[in-house]
Write a structure and sequence with these properties.
4 helices, HNH endonuclease, endonuclease activity, nuclease, endonuclease
Length: 97
Amino acid sequence: MPNLTFPSDPICPLCDRPIPPGVPQSRHHLIPKLRGGKGGPVVLIHQACHSMIHKTITETELARHYNTVEALRGHPELAKFFRWVAKRPPGWKGKIR
């Protein structure tokens, strides 16, 4: 994996909330590693946003159709979740069912 650096005050590109230190966060491979994305672009996002992505979309769909931030934000079910979670505090760690 390439050596990645993220800003000291990152913003989740999916829900537009800050990602302060200590908040559960994750690096999302825009193309899943198992579908050829090893070493490819990644984005720093909230763990809740990451969990929702993988609950909603298969690895194959991610690789083929949802391999950009814009595409993820355009997915109907994810867009609804991102709008909802945007109203939560940055440290919100609710369970994704």
